Amino acid sequence: MLRSVGERFRLTVNGVPTEIEASGDTPLLYALRNDLELKGTRFGCGTGQCGACFVLIDGHPAPACDTPVWSVAGKTVTTVEGLGTARALHPLQEAFLAEQAAQCGFCTSGILISAAALLAKNPKPTEDEVRAALDRNLCRCGSHNRMVRAVMRAAAEART
Amino acid sequence: MNTVADARLVRAGSLERNPRLSQWLRLEHDGTVSVFSGKVEIGQGILTALAQIAAEELGIAVERIRMVTADTSLSPNEGVTSGSLSIQDSGSALRRACAHARALLLERAAEHLGVPVSGLRVEDGTVRAGGRSTSYWQCADTALFDRDVEDQALLSNAPRKHRVVGTSSPRRDLPDKIAGRPRFIQDMVLPRMLHGRVVRPPHGFAGLDSLNDAKAKSVPGVVAIVCDGGFLGVLAEREEAAIAAQRALRSAASWKEIAPLPRDIHAWLRENAIDHRVISEKSDGKVRSREARTLTASYSKPYISHASIGPSCALAHFEGDRLTVWSHSQGIFNLRHDLAMALAMPEDAVVVRHAEGAGCYGHNGADDVALDAALLARAAGSRPVRVQWMRDDEFGWAPCGPAMALELRASLDPGGNIVAWQHDLWSNGHSSRPGRSDQPALLASWHLASPYERPPAINMPLPAGAADRNAIPLYDFPNQRVVNHYVREMPVRTSALRSLGAYANVFAIESFMNELAQAAGADPVEFRLRHLSDPRARSVLEAVAARANWSAWTPGEERGHGIGFAKYKNLGAYCAVVAELAVSHEVRVIQLVIAVDVGLVVNPDGVRNQIEGGAIQSTSWTLKEQVRLGERGIASLGWEDYPILKFSEVPAVEIELIDRPELPAVGAGEAAQGPTAAAIANAVENALGVRVRDLPLTPERIIAAIERE
Q: Chain A residues with CB inside 8 Å of B613's CB?
C-alpha cells in the first residue's frame, strides 16, 4: 500500500525545521541519508534489530530503518550529527575518542544515540545500567568494554 | 591469505613484488609525505600502525604522514590484507623503504650544506649544519626515489630507542567515524548515481525457472530490471524503491529444485574427504612402548558467519569501455583480476579503489557485491551504480567459515607424560578468494546465462596452513601424527574467516590437553609447561597464570576457570587466555585474562584493541554462533536466527602485553580466537564436571552433555 509519491512532511532534524518530500512509507533512514545527506545514521539490518540506524525521536532512541517518514511528521529527530554543536563534539563523542572506543566504527553512531538517551535520563548510570541501555545495539568487533568505559567517562566528566 | 613469512623471499615483506622506492612514498610540497601501501583499513587500525612505522624511519612527526587509500592505479600490489600479515608484509617493506629514503635525503642535504652526513642534525625533516638548514622537502626531486629499495645495509637489527613506534598513536580514522561524518563506502555518493539491489535464489544456488517482473517494474522510480541467466537485479532512482522492487522481484521468481543439504554435516565431512594429507609425523618407538593409557575424543565446529554490522557495498561506473569500482575488498588487485575475467574485459580497463567498510573478519561479501555493482552498472549506461546487500543477502550469500570435524587420540605413560599424539581433521578449504583461479571467485559470475564454474575452496600450504592452521601442536610430543582430510565438495560456500582452521584446531588441542591433564592427575597449567620447551610459549603461560591468580582459584558452585594457549599459525603471536565463568541456565563468561607476545609492539593500544576484540568475538562464536541450515541452504538469515554476544553478556577483559622490542613485530588480529574458545570450554568443564566437545557451547549442548554423564 504505497502512498502517492511526493507527499511533504515537516519535522525538525538536528534543531533545523525541515521538509521531506517522499512517499510516506519511506523509511526515515533513507530520507536522512539520501535526501538530507546525513550519512552518520547507518543501515545494518532493516528490521530494527541491530541499532546501527538509531536516532532520537522526541528524545527516545528508535530505529530509523523501521520508522516510516509519515510517523515522524511534526516531531523532533536527532541524528549523530546533531548530538554535538557545529563547534564542538558531544561529550560522549569526546569520551569515545579519548578511550579509542571503536574498531570499525560502523555501529558507533547508533551506540552514541543510545548512550545519549541514557545520560539524558540517568546522568549517573552504573556500569550495568550502561550495558543494559546498549543491549539493543550490536557490535561485532568486540569494542563493547571500551564503549562502556567511554560512556562512564562522559558521565563522570559531566559531574566534575 | 598470503603465506608469506616465507624463507624463500629474498627481499623483506612486500618489497619482493614492489621493489621501487617510488612505489612506497612521495614527498609533497606541503611538508607532508604520502605513503602508499597496498594494505587496507578494515577496522583493525593498520593505517595508523603503518604511518607510525614510516614516521619512525623517516624521523618525522607521524602527523606529516598521509596514508594514501589503496587503489590499483596507484598503490603497490600487496595481495590481500589478511592473515595478520600487514605488519610483516607492508610494515617491513615500508620500514626499509623509508630508511633508504632517509639515507638518500640526508646525502642530498649534506651536499647542499657542504658537510659530511655525520655532521648533520635532523629534526622532523629539517636538516641543520652549522648555522644553515635545509629540509627533506627541499632536497627531494622526482628522480630521487626512482630506484630500487636497498633493503639490507640500512637497518640495524639491534634494539634501539623508538620515538613513534611503541606509542599508542590514536587511530587516524576514528575522528570521522565517531563524529558520524561520511567515511564508509556505504556513505559514498556519485553524481547521477542509481541504486541497485540483487535477487538471488532463496537458498543454495538453483537455476531460474520462471520470472514475472511486471510488479517490480511497476514500483515508482524503477529504471530497469536486469536478468542474465539466474542473475537478477533492479536499478532505481531511490534506494527504498530499489528495495521495494527487489522484494517484488523476489516473490515473482521461482527457482528449480536442488538436492537437499546433508543433515549431519560433520558426519558428511568425514565421509566425503578426497585427500588425506599427513602434515606432521614423528616416531619414537622406545618412548611409545611406555604407553599406559590412551584417550580419544571427537570435536566439532559449525559453519560461522562473518556477521558484520554493515552489509557489503560497492559502487561501479562505466565510462566508455573503462570501469571504475569502489570496494571494501581485502584484495583490490585480485578483485580487479576476477572482475575483468567475469566481465570479459582487459584487466587494465578496470580500476578498483578501496573505500573503508564495516568490520571485516575475512572473506565476506565485499568482492561479490563489487561484481553485482559492475553488472548493474553495465546495464545502467553511463550512470554510476551503488549496490548494498540487505541483511539476508549477507547472511545467506557471503561465504561462511567452514564447519570442521576433528578427532584426537593420545597416550600417556605411567608418569603422566604424553608419549603419542594423533590429530585428524576434516574440512572444506578455507579460501575461495578472488585472484587465485582461472575461474572468477565471484558469486554472480556462477549465475549468469553463460556461467563460470564455481572454484572449490582451497587450503594454503603450511607452515601457515588453512584448515590445518595450528593443527600441529607446539608441544613436544615424541610420537605425533597429524592428518588433514580435505573435502572438495562444498554444500555451503566456505572461505576465510578470522584465524581459519586455528579456531577449531586450538579448541580441540587445548580441550584435549585438559582431558589428558585430568587423566594424569595434573594441574592444566603445569601439564602444559611439562610438554612445552619454547621459552616464549612458557612465558605467556606463566604470565597469564600469574595475572589470573591461577593457583589461588577457589572453586565455587557452578563457577569454573580454564586455560587455553596457542602460537598463532605456529609462526606468529603467542597468546594464552584464562577464562572465568558462571554457569546457571547458560554460560556467562565473567572475565578473560590474556597474555600476549607479538614481538615488538608497534602500537600498544592497537594490539590491545585487536586482542580484546578477537577474544570477545571468539566468546560470541564459542557460546552462541552457528549458521543454521535448512533443507536447501542457509536458514539463519537475520539476527534473530544468528544471535551474537550482547553488551550485557560481554566479559571483562584484562590484557598483559609482553613487549619484545628486539624481536620482529607480528600481527595481533587473530591470535586470541582459538585460545579463548578452549579456555571457555575448559572452564565449563571445570564448573560442571562435563566436557562439551561440539561448538557452540549452548545450553542445549551442555544439558545433553550432563545427561550423557
A: 103, 141-143
